[in-house]
């Protein structure tokens, strides 16, 4: 099983972005496989989105719901999806996370609107 397959099969991943001064900011997230990359869904105005826009350097590791890693981090490069790509990520999330995913996506859309969240594409660099 490839590293990408292994990470995509996890329920939660620890996505770590980096501040300008190099400090790591880890966040547990849901993730799905999108072709040859991982896809994450997050609030468009979150700190991680700002850090990804600045550099795109990330690591991903399997973790539990509280963000406690249970595997090695893998380096990657993150970019933001456009609106159509974000819609595709939402559909992939619904498929993987079933009812909980559908409810979370609906609540987010009601709270933030369609442009209030964005998909993040993570390409592994190992």
UniProtKB/TrEMBL annotation:
Q: Does the keyword Oxidoreductase apply?
A: yes
Gene3D superfamilies for this protein: Electron Transport, Fmn-binding Protein, Chain A (2.30.110.10)
InterPro entries linked: F420H2_bilvrd_red/Heme_oxyg, PPOX_F420-dep_Rv2061_put, Split_barrel_FMN-bd
Give the superkingdom in one word. Bacteria
Kindly state one GO CC term assigned in the UniProt record.
Answer: cytosol
Determine if Hydrolase is one of this entry's keywords.
no
Listed A to Z, the keywords are: Oxidoreductase
| An annotated Gene Ontology molecular function | oxidoreductase activity, acting on the CH-CH group of donors
Its protein name is Uncharacterized protein
